[in-house]
């Protein structure tokens, strides 16, 4: 490996350290409280080093969102398009929940950390594409008459927000703190099925 390649690899390793530390701090302490200096202290680098990689905190947050959303998009795109559109929706829900529970800090940052600035989301943004994958599946199911003819966007938002509630609880509430007993092992599956049951079209009587 040449000097240029080695330096580039070292640069990417430092950048990853910065992003990993920022993600954990944002999730634990909130966006407003975390400064670039705080991130630098966490990885034992000088603040100057952080600014060599990111212009400011907003620039760092954009990079972090893109990296984490891209990982989520990969999880959603790993789901095929089986013949049964309802099964496709189930598998998308499972992929989403698996991502959330496997990478809780990523998920907490993406969906459970209030950010100071909200920018318009571009169509090719990986986060928008992840939701678009779900929305497309909903519309395919509707086109085949498997879901009730309600607004497709509303249906996709219902599926997403309901599942988010379940995984957010699993991530933030310790097992021993669930009221009246621990969360049932198949909670995610039950939430997915309950969501779909409310949207599936009722066959017409013959």
Short description:
With 206 residues, the chain is mostly helical. The chain is built from 9 helices and no strands.
Would you give an account of this structure?
This protein has 206 residues and is mainly alpha-helical. The chain folds into 2 domains: 54 residues, Orthogonal Bundle (Arc Repressor Mutant, subunit A); 131 residues, Tetracycline Repressor, domain 2 (Orthogonal Bundle). It is 67% helix and 0% strand. The protein contains 9 helices and no strands. The longest helix is centred in the first third of the chain and has 27 residues.
Q: Features of this protein?
A:
about 65% helix, about 210 residues, Tetracycline Repressor, domain 2, about 0% strand, mainly alpha, 2 domains, Arc Repressor Mutant, subunit A
């Amino acid at each position: 490996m040449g000097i240029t390649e080695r330096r580039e690899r070292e640069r990417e390793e430092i950048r990853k350290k910065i992003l990993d530390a920022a993600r954990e701090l944002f999730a634990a302490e909130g966006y407003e409280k975390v400064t670039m200096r705080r991130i630098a202290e966490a990885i034992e680098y000088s603040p100057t080093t952080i600014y060599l990689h990111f212009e400011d905190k907003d620039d760092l947050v954009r990079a972090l969102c893109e990296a984490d959303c891209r990982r989520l998009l990969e999880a959603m795109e790993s789901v095929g398009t089986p013949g049964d559109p309802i099964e496709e929706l189930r598998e998308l829900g499972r992929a989403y929940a698996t991502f959330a529970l496997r990478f809780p800090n990523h998920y907490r940052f993406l969906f459970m950390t209030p950010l100071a600035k909200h920018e318009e989301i571009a169509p090719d943004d990986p986060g928008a594409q992840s939701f678009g994958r779900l929305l497309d599946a909903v519309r395919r199911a509707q086109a085949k008459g498997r879901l009730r003819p309600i607004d497709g966007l509303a249906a996709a938002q219902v599926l997403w927000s309901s599942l988010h509630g379940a995984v957010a609880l699993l991530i933030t509430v310790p097992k021993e703190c669930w009221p009246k007993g621990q969360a049932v092992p198949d909670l995610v599956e039950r939430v997915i099925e309950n969501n779909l049951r409310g949207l599936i079209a009722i066959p017409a009587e013959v």
